[in-house]
Amino acid sequence: MSIDYAERIPNNVSLSEDRRLQRALENWQPKFLEWWNEMGPAGFQTADVYLRTATSVDAKGWATFGYVKMPEYRWGIFLTERDPNRTIPFGEHKGEPAWQEVPGEHRGVLRRLIVTQGDTEPASVEQQRHLGRTCPSLYDLRNLFQVNVEEGRHLWAMVYLLHGYFGRDGREEAEALLTRRSGSADNPRILGAFNERTPDWLSFFMFAHFTDRDGKYQLASLAESGFDPLSRTCRFMLTEEAHHLFVGETGISRTLARSCQLMKQHDTDAIGAHGGIPLSIVQKYLNFHFSVSLDLFGSELSTNAANYFSAGLKGRYKEADLADDHRLTNATYRVARARDGRIAESDEPALNALNEALRDAYIADCERALARWNKVIEDARIDFRLSLPHRGFHRAIGEFRGLFVSPTGRIVSESEWRDHEREWLPTQEDREFVASLMKPATQPGTFASWIAPPPRGINHQPIEMEYVRNLPPD
Length: 474
Ligand code: BYC
Description:
A hairpin with a 2-residue loop joins strand 3 and strand 4 (342-349). It is built from eleven helices and five strands, in the order αββαααααααββαααβ. The two termini are 43 Å apart. The chain is globular. The relative contact order is 0.13. It is 45% helix and 7% strand. Benzoyl coenzyme A (BYC) binds at residues 113, 116-117, 120-121, 124, 151, 191-192, 211-212, 214-215, 218, 295-299, 302, 304-305, 314, 355, 397.
């Protein structure tokens, strides 16, 4: 399914055959560009960036690479091919033909899910807009911008659904996606993690690893949706998302590799003076980003989630691989709950525990990446291991909200928490120290003091390629 780039809005949905929709989207397009110019990467709008652009949605012809100025990136609408035989894979409507139109009784809920998903995309671009000035290399700068333009495209994906299937209120929601602002006191983004700051590159890599990974699991669940256009758009978004996760995971691996190298070289853990990030600070950043990302899965027990599932709107991760009735009417699921001052597991109705089941799949995925990071440290023969904090640690949503839970999963008093908070979460000094290392490295092939080069470049290009040209003056 090739993409029509001759159109003002590149697409593979035959947009030119639907004049009303085309006009509505062409009306939204300049507003998007206005938002991009105001809230997109600060200072780099005229730089030439070596970016990939989707050319077709099948596995082979995915992308072409070339230098592009970001405001000229060809954002568009790309859905995976329609399977005319697709049926709803779960819930009360399991086995019925997938919906090509919005089911009337679920209109409000479906719109809300799409808006919540859509809201995260511009939010992340806003959160990352100041990072360009402190890039650790041109390779990393290019990766940041690739992530940014693709999050912009993910916004297009959701806006297409709002315009195409929800009429006037969809159009209003699409406008609102451009007016909320990450971190704004008056008009914030919808979900907590998207109002946090991403002030430095360690935060960015953590965000791309932990928060984008929530994106992977949420998109995979929406890709199961009985509403076929949502399913098809999320399937294609997932292929883009994989690169974002790569940027996060390898960014942290390279940070660790460099820290270990400096620890060996100078025979000390206190590598701050040598331009490295101590492993204890990496752990604190990890604790922060993991916990705010866990909140993105919602409450452990959620009637919202049960309703989404029963209605056929939002499924589970890899629904087809799960060996059950895909309706879950009588099933139970083990959930960690806080009771009488301690955390213990109990069996709960599986339908209500769907957020927790998705969080479990996410945590297992995070554990696998953690093992790869620890291998980097182990290979350097350094006696330190990173760990994921307990799921109850530092939570603001759900079962553990309002409790003080240590990284090992003990409910502690507020005063004990305060005594240890500085060991568990980044302090102001930690953040200032990390910020002090964020010196830009903009000569091709050079890297900031705190991060190792990647093993290879992008798209088989050399590491020392000039991935971003025409940089703004310092
Ligand atoms: N912050 O039953 P509950 C991505 C609200 S990331 C603030 O616990 P539910 C990306 C909730 O809205 C993926 N509020 O939760 C990554 C509800 O409000 P109301 C984004 C929260 O509804 C990086 C109340 O609490 N996609 O793509 O089962 C870069 C109780 O709700 C939060 C999606 O999220 C929170 N963390 O599940 C770029 C998918 N959590 O009704 C992009 C769509 C809950 O009382 N969203 N609340 O007013 C959903 O599926 C669900 O809305 C959630 C929440 C999973 C987020």
